[in-house]
Amino acid sequence: MKRISAFILLPAALAAQILEVRVLDSHGGALAQARAECHPGATGAAADLEGLVRLECPLPAELRVSAAGFQSEVRTLSRAPEGVLEVRLRPAPLRTVLEVEVRETPGSGPPSGSRLEMDQRGARTVLDAVEKLAPGAFVTRRGVMGYGIATNGTGVVTIRGVGGQPNTGVLIVVDGRPDYQGLMGHPLPDFYGLADAGTVTVIEGPASVAYGSNAMGGVIEIRSAPPPERMETRFSSSLGSYLTGQHRLSNGARLGRGFYTLAAGVSHTRGERERAAFRSQEGSFSAGYDLSEVWKASLQGRYGHFYVEDPGPVFAPLAGSYARVGRGGAGFNLDNSGGRTWGQASVFSNHGHHIMADGFRSVDRTSGARVDQQVLLRPGLTAEAGADVVNYGGRARNVITLLDYGRHALTTAAGFSRLNWMPAGRLRLHGGARYETSSLFGDITAPEIGASFSLHADHTLAASISRGFRNPTIRELYLFPAPNPALKREDLWNYELSYAARPRSGLEVTLAAFYADAGNMIVTTGRYPNLRLENSGAAIHRGLESAVRYRPWRALRVSAGGLRMWSTNLSPYVPRSKFNYGLDADLKKVFVNLSGMAVGRMWVSAARTRQMGGYHVATLKLTLPFSARYRVFALVDNLFNKRYQVIDGYPMPGINAAGGFMLSF
Fold it and tell me: Are the C-beta atoms of residues 249 and 235 closer than 8 Å to each other?
């Protein structure tokens, strides 16, 4: 999918033109302090009180728009636009946030602000894409495809060392709905395919003010692709080593004041080892209607089913170990956007059923409602207020041992508010708090505060302090391995200092230093069969994170990012260091993408008695555009045929390849 908002390409023109550019903030407020420059020539002008800039620009040229306290934006113009060109700038970040626009096909043009346009780089799932692009994110895996669940399940997401085993410390939000298994409290990574993903936003560090529990380490927000302006159908298919394939079909359109999108996907593999098969089916839909210029109603939903086999570690192989899982969810949203106020009210529900080879059976659900409204009190001052209520739980039993875990449910309710204020042209302040009460854990207040200062229109220094928390899951309270109904919340305080710069056109650099202090962590103590869960764990994660995005020429884009942590109590299978890189080149007749990831050493067990070596893995992808509507591609994964493991006892496949095509009509 390609989003035009990042840049505009227009037919060629040679003469100088008088451009009229209106510069607004992300909510439509005029930015009187903005400046627009035209390159080459470096002619520029400042905006008036209405945010309007008039300047002479010899076309074709690159238009650069900037304002203190906001991210710059670049647009490529080859002829003058009709009427006034509107440019909306987003505030400079107070926190480390990565936004990725997911596309089926590569394209040209500079990124907009901090956003990246991503040809999938060989990624098979949303979590694959996140790991390839976010230096602070790491995802465990055990094979070519299929994360699985239960004892040897993978797909555990950690952000800057926080996540948990299984992942209950990084929240995944799908179309505004918090998505996790109601009993276990963790997401099911095999359900986050790329069939309908439009944008993926990664928030690093606590986001509990907005989302409450499970957002202690960060949030991954997945939003469906918006409908095309006219009816369009897309189909893509690939097949490769180990009979690994992915096939996706989508259709959508805007019909007057209404719209709809439909998407479906099938994934499968025989696996690189015997008894490592995986297959899944997923489908999603969305439909909406513009009730007026202010109000819009929409409905989104998805359902999927997967079957996965676990071959076990090579030193203790398993036979007949499998899981069958079906999950679905839906949400109804009522959006409003009118001048000085905008927001959303929504109701949602997720549900699932799980069948395991060891006899475990469960059904679960998570249902809730959320209201969030923002108001522009005056230029530079925005207030936000909201509330949400969530009820989650389910029932579990084992049909082999005849153990009935019973039915359990918990409810949380919260109110939250935030304030964004620009008291001066270069200074931006942000503060907020969440007050949450639980049917079991009582009350908690989670605050956050931050400030950013623009040293220059293209150089911003920011600092923030935020608190995150995680409620114990129903599994930890009442199920296994050692339930303890007296468990209390986990707690984390995060301190961050960041610097973002755009020293020259096409170059973006970000640096961040963080200090995360986690306490009251739930850990397993004792030895089987005398195990016990207790709030006795603690950890301090200190780290440096960096990212560079550079476009030296129109046809070449380079990106790189790294993370280095110093931790007092790093969890198993979380690397101390990680480095990502990517190169995208448009060679006219072929698009080339080379991406890779270098991962440092990791502990294998919580006792930290043994480490597993680091590794480097690279992917090469070539895309040949036969026409605007038909493309073929080939990719090679583990390009240098490295031998490595992400989980002890599960050797990852060596060099492997796949090929396919993409068709739109």
Answer: yes
Residue holding tokens 């004892």?
Answer: 151
In degrees and rounded to multiples of 5, residue 243 shows phi and psi of 55, 40
Burial of residue 117 (number of CB atoms within 10 Å: 0-12, 13-18, 19+): buried
CB 323 within 8 A of CB 150: yes
Question: Residue 233 to residues 39, 253, 257, 549, 565: CA-CA distances in angstroms?
Answer: 38, 9, 20, 32, 45
The pTM is what? 0.87
Sequence-distant (6+) residues with CB within 8 A of 74 are 7, 62, 63, 64, 65, 110, 112, 505, 506
Question: How many C-beta atoms surround the C-beta of residue 76 within 10 A?
Answer: 16
Q: What is the dihedral of CA 279, 392, 194, 73, to 10 degrees?
A: -170
Return the structure tokens found at 585.
């080149």
For residue 652, the 8-state DSSP code is P
pLDDT < 50 positions in the chain: 1-14, 105-116
* Residue 402 in tokens: 């005849």
Structure tokens at 532: 């016990």
Would you call 235 helix, strand, or coil by DSSP? strand
The residue among 91, 43, 89, 83 whose CA lies nearest residue 63 is: 43
Residue 63 makes CB contacts below 8 A (sequence gap 6+) with 19, 21, 36, 37, 38, 39, 57, 74, 75, 76, 77, 85
pLDDT tens digits, 340-376: 888 999 999 999 999 999 999 999 999 999 999 999 8
Query: Distance of alpha carbon 432 from its chain centroid, rounded?
Result: 22
CB 492 within 8 A of CB 231: no
Q: How far is CA 85 from CA 7, 54, 63, in A?
A: 12, 11, 11
Query: Residue 645 contacts by C-beta under 8 Å, 6 or more apart in sequence?
Result: 612, 615, 651, 652
Alpha carbons within 13 A on the beta-carbon side of 553 = 7
The domains found in the chain, sorted by start residue, are 4-89 (2.60.40.10), 97-220 (2.170.130.10)
For residues 476 and 234, what is the distance between their CA atoms, to the nearest angstrom?
A: 43
Q: Are strands 170-174 and 218-224 parallel, antiparallel or unpaired?
A: parallel
Q: Is-contact 638 622, C-beta < 8 A?
A: no
Output b/e per residue, 454-475; b: 16+ Cβ within 10 A: beebbebbbebbbbbbbbbbbb
The 3-state secondary structure of 601-614, one letter per residue: CEECCCCCCCEECC
Dihedrals φ, ψ of 517, to 5°?
-115, 105
Residue 560 CA to residue 510 CA, distance in Å, equals 11
Stated length of the chain: 665
pLDDT single digits (tens) 496-544: 999 988 888 778 899 999 999 999 999 988 887 788 899 998 999 999 9
**Under 8 Å between Cβ of 252 and 287:** no
What's the DSSP call for residue 28?
Answer: S
Q: What are phi and psi of 210, to 5 degrees?
A: -85, -35
Distance CA 370, CA 148 (A): 31
The strand pair at 157-159 and 507-527 is best described as: unpaired
Could you write out the DSSP letters of every residue in 82-112? Answer: SSPEEEEEPBPPSS-EEEEEEESS---SPPP
Q: Encoding tokens for residue 309?
A: 């086999």
